[in-house]
Design a protein that fits this description.
The protein is built from 9 helices and 12 strands. It is α+β, with helices and mostly antiparallel strands and 293 residues long. The strands form 3 sheets. It has an 8-stranded mixed sheet with strand order 1-4-5-12-11-10-7-6, sandwiched between helices. Helix 2 crosses helix 8.
Length: 293
């Protein structure tokens, strides 16, 4: 463990805090242990011996705070995801999340640009923006809305073992889109609605984006879905998806759904702070920027 890393990490984290406090955001704290974790089918939380879970995102708790009338909030917190270990994943990592009332996902893009350019002069605004549809047409000549999506995908990958539309999308994205995103910052926007269970939708697509730098995903953001009835329906769909995957099916967080009734238009974002530090310090692995990996 090097003193320079400790110093650099502390300096960057402090500058992130300064950015948000200077822009009138209130820092909040959320619990590390929760009774009901998020429903995201592809995430597995750590369970404690007394039936609680280590939080894999503070998202639901932060939306409950929005429902209490807070307007601009941010949080730097530890989160935990079982089974995630690679050069860009660690089971315990640091998440930066922020939320704004009367905002949408385009406002979150502006926030990202302003935050990152306040931390480094390597990048300049505006960052590139490409929709998922544009990227699939550019690199694969595939229309995501086509009834022949699976057949078109089969020209590029073996789809015989892939059970769902989303599994096919993800494999194509991982193999043909991510490797071609380039070193500069880019917002990949308007993901298929089936991959944005908490986001506002617009037809086939959702108001969601991910930020990539050096081909590394740093952030996931969206215009918030605030219709409690529609949100319940989507959570029930995720429950069924977890059931089909033989994963633990969690109860729906009724407190979260109740909070939605008090939230007007809003947007939020989760940004991996360790990965941002990787980019800023030109490191190749997440283990190089975590003090105790």
């Amino acid at each position: 463990m090097h003193e320079k890393l400790i110093t650099d990490r502390a300096r960057i984290t402090q500058r992130v805090r300064d950015f948000f406090t200077d822009n009138n955001f209130l820092e909040v704290e959320t619990p590390i242990m929760v009774d009901i974790p998020g429903m995201e089918p592809h995430l597995t939380p750590f369970e404690t011996t007394d039936g609680k879970f280590l939080n894999h995102s503070p998202e639901l708790q932060m939306k409950k705070l929005l429902g209490q009338g807070l307007k601009r909030i941010f949080n730097i917190t530890k989160v935990f995801r079982s089974g995630e270990k690679s050069n860009t994943h660690n089971p315990e990592f640091t998440m930066l999340e922020w939320y704004r009332l009367n905002a949408d996902y385009k406002d979150m893009m502006t926030d990202c640009e302003n935050l990152i350019t306040s931390l480094t002069d390597k990048y300049s605004k505006p960052f590139k923006r490409k929709t998922c549809q544009e990227l699939f047409q550019e690199h694969l000549q595939i229309d995501l809305t086509s009834d022949n999506f699976a057949e078109e995908a089969a020209k590029h990958i073996d789809v015989s073992q892939l059970k769902t539309w989303d599994e096919i999308f993800f494999k194509l994205f991982l193999n043909f889109i991510e490797p071609n995103l380039g070193p500069e910052p880019i917002f990949v926007t308007d993901y298929p609605a089936s991959q944005a269970a908490l986001a506002k939708t617009k037809g086939f697509f959702a108001e969601r984006f991910e930020l990539y730098i050096n081909g590394l995903e740093l952030a996931n953001a969206f215009s918030e879905l605030t219709d409690a009835t529609e949100q319940r329906h989507r959570l029930e769909e995720e429950q069924e998806e977890r059931r089909q995957m033989n994963k633990t099916v969690f109860p729906i967080d009724e407190e979260f759904l109740s909070a939605l009734d008090s939230i007007p238009e809003a947007a939020g974002i989760a940004l991996g702070l360790d990965r941002l530090i990787m980019v800023l310090l030109d490191k190749k692995t997440i283990q190089e920027v975590i003090l105790f990996s």
